[in-house]
């Protein structure tokens, strides 16, 4: 995580500053995007099942509303902290800008381990947190969504709590809800589907055939498992996957549907318990350094750092997680000639379909899953092409290319709106 003195917010500032300078902006034109617009810290009291009152720490941070309402997920994880949430909020601003959807960026989080909470504790925690951030959120202000440790059910509780406080149903306050109460078809798989589409796009760009290409996936949560499943279906050979318990590796390719079935079969099933002929157990560090064409980090930030970047053998990295590569690791990878497709492009599929969900909620008009997937593909393909083109024109990495597009869109919006009063 953000250990070792590494600050993801500083990481973000440095890339944004660099992009703004390359774009020729003066300091006064981009100064404001270095600071989140609003930061709220809350203390959330919850009666635990054993009768104790426990107080949890939570955050909601809006980085920018220049291009539209703030948008971004809510993370439940023990390592959540202010700088992490600030960085994640800013990444949402640039992610929404790079795929050109009319949102700013936000993020929220609660310091907790959801796997150790009962359903009732989780529900009370979510509802009280929602009530405490209610003055800040709303379909026209700030729209939360799932992130690490949260899911559709939790989004449903957020929607209900907010609606109860308002006195009427407000489906558009949150995205990633269960389909039965206004969620978009395809939202559950959208981030992983976007990672799959981006992987196919970069393979096409580099003229690497899809069939038989090997890939490693770090993280078997919503994003990693969907990306692995969909890429496997496309003919990519997934040779290694990992989760918090470690990884499994098979030279001739893993049976991904079987791995996913095992992980979903029972709460608490982890890869360390997965057994199959020809499958070897490895550590997370070994997975990152294993031999394969593609590496998809789809877990948490700062996984590829100065200490292990040199040992990465993959030729291509597609960032399914937010901020999985530190700035110094990025430089090492660039020197090694590894092509990195950046997070703000590669994992944008989730927020793109969140946007579709919000649009449907506002119009009370619902789309088919085919329509959602088709429009997601259109946006992912178009954004990929623009990033590749600008990176080529400027002779920069895909990450810098994505930031050149995103920073320009945010700064131009700010300039057009002006500084009030
Ligand atoms: N948490 C996801 C992300 O990091 C989705 C955010 C959203 O849909 O608003 O992109």
Task: Write structural notes for this entry.
The chain is of the alpha/beta class. It is built from 14 helices and 13 strands. The protein has helices at residues 8-22, 27-30, 82-98, 119-133, 152-166, 187-205, 222-234, 256-265, 284-288, 327-336, 343-346, 349-363, 369-394, 398-417; strands at residues 38-47, 53-64, 70-71, 74-77, 105-111, 142-143, 214-218, 237-243, 246-249, 280-282, 294-297, 316-318, 339-341. The strands form three sheets. A seven-stranded mixed β-sheet has the order 10-9-8-7-11-12-13, with helices on both faces. The protein is globular, with a radius of gyration of 21 Å. The model has no long low-confidence stretch (mean pLDDT 97). The structure holds glutamic acid. Glutamic acid is lined by residues 71-73, 145, 147, 175, 322, 347, 350-351, 354.
| Helix and strand composition category | alpha/beta
Q: Strand order within the widest sheet?
A: 10-9-8-7-11-12-13
Q: Globular, elongated, flat, extended or rod-shaped: what is the shape?
A: globular
pLDDT averaged residue by residue:
97
Low-confidence stretches: none
Radius of gyration: 21 Å
Run of helices and strands: HHEEEEHEHEHHEHEEHEHEEHEHHHH
Beta-strand residue fraction:
15-25%
Q: What's the total number of strands?
A: 13
Helix content: 40-55%
Helix-strand layout with pairing:
Elements: H1 8-22, H2 27-30, E1 38-47, E2 53-64, E3 70-71, E4 74-77, H3 82-98, E5 105-111, H4 119-133, E6 142-143, H5 152-166, H6 187-205, E7 214-218, H7 222-234, E8 237-243, E9 246-249, H8 256-265, E10 280-282, H9 284-288, E11 294-297, E12 316-318, H10 327-336, E13 339-341, H11 343-346, H12 349-363, H13 369-394, H14 398-417
Parallel strand pairs: 3-6, 4-5, 7-8, 7-11, 11-12, 12-13
Antiparallel strand pairs: 1-2, 2-5, 8-9, 9-10
Helix pairs in contact: 1-3, 1-14, 3-14, 4-5, 6-7, 6-12, 6-13, 12-13, 13-14
Residues 71-73, 145, 147, 175, 322, 347, 350-351, 354 line the site of glutamic acid.
């Amino acid at each position: 995580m953000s250990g070792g003195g590494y600050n993801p917010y500083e990481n973000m500032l440095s890339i944004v500053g660099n992009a703004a300078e390359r774009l020729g902006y003066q300091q006064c034109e981009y100064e404001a995007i270095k600071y989140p617009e609003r930061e709220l810290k809350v203390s959330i009291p919850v009666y635990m099942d054993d009768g104790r009152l426990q107080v949890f720490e939570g955050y909601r941070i809006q980085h920018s509303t220049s291009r539209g309402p703030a948008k971004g997920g809510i993370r439940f994880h023990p390592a959540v902290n202010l700088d992490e949430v600030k960085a994640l909020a800013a990444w949402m601003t640039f992610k929404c800008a790079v795929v050109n959807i009319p949102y700013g960026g936000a993020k929220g989080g609660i310091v907790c381990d959801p796997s150790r909470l009962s359903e009732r504790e989780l529900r009370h925690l979510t509802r009280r947190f929602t009530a405490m951030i209610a003055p800040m959120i709303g379909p026209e202000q700030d729209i939360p969504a799932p992130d690490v440790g949260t899911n559709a059910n939790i989004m449903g509780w957020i929607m209900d709590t907010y609606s109860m406080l308002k006195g009427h149903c407000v489906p558009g306050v949150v995205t990633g809800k269960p389909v039965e109460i206004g969620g978009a078809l395809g939202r559950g798989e959208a981030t992983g589907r976007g990672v799959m589409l981006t992987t196919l796009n970069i393979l096409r760009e580099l003229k690497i055939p899809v069939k038989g290409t090997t890939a490693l996936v770090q993280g078997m949560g919503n994003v990693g498992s969907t990306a692995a499943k969909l890429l496997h279906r496309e003919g990519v050979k997934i040779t290694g996957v990992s989760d918090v318990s470690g990884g499994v590796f098979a030279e001739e390719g893993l049976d991904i549907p079987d791995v996913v079935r095992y992980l979903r079969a029972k709460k608490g099933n982890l890869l360390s318990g997965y057994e199959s002929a020809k499958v070897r157990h490895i550590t997370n560090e070994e997975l990152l350094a294993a031999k394969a064409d593609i590496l998809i980090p789809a877990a948490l930030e700062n996984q590829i750092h100065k200490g292990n970047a040199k040992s990465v053998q993959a030729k291509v990295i597609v960032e399914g997680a937010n901020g999985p590569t530190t700035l110094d690791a990025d430089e090492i990878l660039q020197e090694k000639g590894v092509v990195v497709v950046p997070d703000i492009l590669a994992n944008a599929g989730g927020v793109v379909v969140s946007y579709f969900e919000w649009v449907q909620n506002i119009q009370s008009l619902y789309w088919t899953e085919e329509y959602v997937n088709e429009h997601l593909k259109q946006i992912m393909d178009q954004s990929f092409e623009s990033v590749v083109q600008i990176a080529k024109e400027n002779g920069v990495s895909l990450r810098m290319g994505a930031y050149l597009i995103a920073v320009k869109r945010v700064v131009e919006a700010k300039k057009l709106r002006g500084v009030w009063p």
